[in-house]
Amino acid sequence: MTQAAIRTDSSEPMITMTGVGKWYGAFQALHNVDITVSRGEKIVLCGPSGSGKSTLIRCINHLEAYQEGEIHVGGMLLGHQAKTIDAVRREVGMVFQQFNLFPHLTVLQNCMLAPVKALGLSKAEAEQRARHLLERVKISEQAEKYPAQLSGGQQQRVAIARALCMRPKVMLFDEPTSALDPEMVKEVLDTMIALADEGMTMICVTHEMGFARQVADRVIFMASGSIVEEAPPAEFFSNPQHERTRKFLGEILGRH
Amino acid sequence: MNYTLDFTPVIDGLPDLLAACFGTFTLAIFGMLLATVIGIGGVVLRQSPLKPVRWAVIGFVEIIRNTPFLVQIFFIYFALPLAGIRLDPTPTAIIALGINGGAYAIEIIRGGVQSIPKGQMEAGLALGLHKAQVFRLIILKPALRAIYPSLTSQFVLLTLSTSIASAISAYELTSVSQRIESDSFRSFEVYFTVTAFYLVISWVMMRIFALFSARYFSYPVK
What we know:
Helix content of chain A is 38%, strand content 23%. By secondary structure, chain A is of the alpha/beta class.
């Protein structure tokens, strides 16, 4: 095998971003972003819309190319060559706001596709893995259904199982509950909490501050493409240092 | 009107006409298969990172869509021998139908691919699949489903265009009926019958398309 493998030295950080800059044409979406995420750490990323938080996590699996700085995932430099990008993507799971399940495949097939096609698992192995993970997100009885037959919350739990079928070392969540009806938010958050309890390294872009309080090791607040402040949740919520953070928290918590 | 209808030449020619229907079917089916291959291949090449490749596809589509099919058939029939390739009228007609239908199919299928939300591509990539795998395994089927009605009406048109292959005397319904007509002078009877046959052929094609759709595009969507 020529593919670069992710090292598993446990003392090493899972993700480091150093001086990352990202532009859309003349517009700078990320300014000099530095983040280090340890193994097993749970990060909640929040900030007003357009602050660059989605862009930031999309850089980690290179759905967005960055132009400045360096990103290491599992000790491996995420360059711009297809080979390292593929190696990183196989280790990094992502859950999207719009679920993005494949409509023409059943729930089970959605979960089996990438393990078979990207990892080379046999169909039997992939199916076993998929059924196990569907059980873990408590949706195994829907395995033969198509995405359009499921509720939003069920679809998002399938999307989580689908990502987990790749046995990722990191999970990225891009506003996973924003497109859900309110009564379905909890089932998805519960799934995420269970995943966090199992020690998964997670970066979650979310406005669910209850989730942040309960699960996050650190909350990172972004505005205008920069990190404004970061702190453990207790400190972040009780004693925000910056005016912009206070304003944001006032708006977002005031809603509830 | 003193004209007396006489279907005798048609009835006598029936075995020949039915065999010619089969010829028309053959041209249409193989023409469609080739058009589908060209259509999907063209869409893939149309997305190539190499500019000359994209231009070649655009040029191909523009040339084919802006010239008459009859001229295209003649061009292939008389130009290929100059390149040392000598084909019978039937394979020539299939190639011509495939190329012509393919150019239209490229544009139709491209529309389908563009209608697929960007998130589908992203989800596939994020799962570690290559771009080509994402296209083949994730994008293609929903894209074809989205444009299936346009593609099948284009293919009905392709089926009817097989009649133009009579110009190079391919074995199909129109050329056989022309022969019966010129032997018997029973123009109305012959073309009345042929019209009915073409209607049946179109109807059968649409049934085939519907069955295919029920088999492959039956997954539920919102």
